[in-house]
Amino acid sequence: PQFGSRSSGINAEYGETGRSLPPSPAVVMCGDTFSLPKDRNLKVGPGLRYINDQISCTKPGVIRSTGKSVWIDRNSRRYVPALEERVIGIIAGRMADEYRVDIGGAHYAMMSSIAFEGATQRNKPDLKIGNLVYGKVVAANKDVEPELSCVHKNGKSNGLQVLEGGYLINCSLGLCRKLLRHERPLPLLEPLFAHFKLFEICVGINGRVWIRSDNIKHTLCIALYLKKCEYLPETDLMPLLKDLVKRVETSM
Alpha-carbon distance 139 to 105, whole Å? Predict the structure, then answer.
């Protein structure tokens, strides 16, 4: 049988094993098995398991792929850490040379106190409980605690850092994935770019978004907009933002 329709842009066939990888996006169910193309070196991401030269779906959802990776996109309730994913963490504790970081998963993540660009034992950030960090998952296994780092293999941060000031909001995992897609233009963010000139936004795939601007009213408007925009059509996004700006301006 086939699920989805051409109008939704999602088509998939089920019930067979060893089929070639379907075009992205496609709806899949648990147990669906696909063979990887031999001419492409793909990295297997969350929701998939590599077994005997094939990938098997461990979760239902929408399978998506790029030139380098393939994964299952689903709006789950709790974040499950996966390698190389960028997340926003909250410092929850400190030990001798490590921090315990809340990333929204079932367990705290561990992060070395020198896992920052240019950090040494004598010169390293002094983080307090409640501080925010934007890092990537460098170790993820169901039997051990995940591990975070704010540096890449080349020793550079490339945007990974301690987040100072700003405002943190919690969003659905699905919304964060939409904001992180490498598509141009970005329908959800275009109204913000058109209306506000100076602001920063940092999106963690673990369902957290950090916002900072030069005006507290602008920060509040952006936060309210992101919480309401996920399921709206594109034509309603700019009217929503204008209404929120008007309401905030009159109430503050």
Answer: 14
**Across the 252 residues of the chain, what is the mean pLDDT of every consecutive 10-residue run?**
34 50 82 78 81 84 80 81 92 91 92 89 89 94 89 87 93 87 76 90 94 92 91 88 88 74
Maximum Cα–Cα distance across the chain: 63
Rg (alpha carbons) of the chain, rounded to whole number: 20
* Residue type for position 93: G
* Pairing mode of beta strands 33-35, 26-28: unpaired
Give the sheet arrangement for strand 19-20, strand by strand.
19-20, 33-35, 54-57, 48-51
Contact 103, 140 (CB under 8 A): no
In angstroms, the Cα distances linking 250 to 64, 217, 218, 243, 246 are 43, 11, 13, 11, 6
CB-based contacts of 44-53 (< 8 A; 24+ apart in sequence): 44/69, 44/70, 44/71, 45/69, 45/70, 45/71, 45/72, 45/82, 46/71, 46/72, 46/80, 46/82, 47/71, 47/72, 47/73, 47/74, 48/72
- Beta strands 26-28 and 61-65 are antiparallel
- Identity (one letter) of the amino acid at 105? G
Give residue for tokens 């275009």: 190
- pTM for the model stands at 0.78
Q: What are phi and psi of 217, to 5 degrees?
A: -65, -40
Which helix (H) or strand (E) segment holds residue 131: the answer is: none
Tokens linked to 39: 């001419």
pLDDT at site 43? 81
pLDDT for position 3: 36
